[in-house]
Amino acid sequence: MKINRIILTGALTLLGIFAAVQPAALQAQTDYDIYQNAFQVTVPINVTNFNFTPVTIPTGKRLIQNVSMSGAAQTNGADVQPIIIFATTLGTETSNNRFFAPLEDPQVPGQYYADFETTMYADTLSVSPAFSGYTPTFMAFNVVITGFLVSMPDPPPAAAIGRGGNATPFTHDLLR
Question: What is the pTM of this model?
Fold first, then answer.
């Protein structure tokens, strides 16, 4: 009986922790939200441009829910693995890089396709090609970025900043 109480207490504590870290202020998107905030952009990248190509995100918004890539790569060596790098910044933080490696089509060697669901909230976003293996003699990709633009939350009132535990709780609907 004592073991069952310990297990029940542990399970309830764990559920409480999960509930505390989940964003409670998010609301389901309506058709109007989807219409107003849908975002899609295609970024062409290739082997002759190993620089980061910036993607414009409207001021006051953050984004990304899905990336899709299709393209081709060839090498004179044994093999090459194309990689697409997403460099994001959020607020005043330093840049973070995320790496996506599309798979080669088993029916058509040299052709690569991938669709990745992801969550990257970014104030700035840049996309660049990279590779693993032998240097590609040819590489060209279309990277399609889709998602919803999410409004950045309003900052807490100035009086609440720096007051420690006495600050008024702050919640905000992120999908306004």
Answer: 0.66
